[in-house]
Amino acid sequence: MLLLDIGNTNIKIYDGKEVRRRVARAGNLPDKPFCYINVNPELEPVLAHRHTVTDLAPLFQFSTTYRGMGIDRIAACYTVKNGVVVDAGSAITVDIMKRGHHEGGFILPGIRSCKDSFANISSKLIMDPKKEISLGDLPQNTADALLYATLKSILLMIAFHAKGAPVFVTGGDGARLCQYLPNAVYKENLIFRGMQKVIKETGRSC
């Protein structure tokens, strides 16, 4: 079973064992049959003309009143009955699940997006997203101050809405955020788990 999570920047391909990443363009789509979710409008016409692929988006029966929620967020939330779902990529999405219902959510700039924003303000505002810093001490230099403010603002928003509930984190910066969040667990393949669940529920094959 080949599953694809198609984003605006990358295509993530999951074969049940490992995830491979390719740049999001038509030539990087596998020749084999696959099931997919897609948020990339440029690839939609290409996928529509492939007869050996299955769009899983219409199969999700997801309880929410949120309008315009991306299918990647829905898939990430699909296996969580109670808790907070965090997808930490270029943007950070935070969604609240209670008794299987999506209560709502919000979107924050990702860590690297913040880095780019600071650089656009001034060439002196240089942040290293990978640097390890203590969030218990006030920064004593500009680079640490930028990273401290970025991480604190993200973490405080998540913690405020979690209120002690379990936090399920995925995405490229997910493991980084997890180390600072109580009750948090990193689920690298959370979106693919949601895709697998809807395939099992609907009896589809890929």
The number of distinct structural domains comes to 2
Order of helices and strands: EEEEHEHEEEHHEHEH
Calculate the terminal CA-CA distance, rounded to whole Å: 5 Å
General shape: globular
- Classify the fold: give the CATH topology of the largest domain: Nucleotidyltransferase, domain 5
Number of helices: 6
* Spatial sequence of strands, sheet with the most strands: 3-2-1-4-5
CATH top level of the largest domain is: Alpha Beta
| Record field, number of beta strands | 10
Q: Give the helix level as a range of percent.
A: 25-40%
Largest sheet: 5 strands, mixed
In words, what does this structure look like?
The chain has helices at residues 44-48, 71-77, 111-121, 142-162, 174-178, 190-202; strands spanning 3-6, 10-14, 19-23, 34-38, 53-55, 83-88, 91-98, 101-109, 167-170, 184-186. It has a 5-stranded mixed sheet with strand order 3-2-1-4-5, covered by helices on one side. It has a 5-stranded mixed sheet with strand order 8-7-6-9-10, sandwiched between helices. It is globular and about 60 Å long. It is of the alpha/beta class and 206 residues long. The N and C termini lie close together (5 Å). The chain contains 6 helices and 10 strands. The protein folds into 2 domains: 3-55, ATPase, nucleotide binding domain (Nucleotidyltransferase, domain 5); 71-194, 2-Layer Sandwich (Nucleotidyltransferase, domain 5).
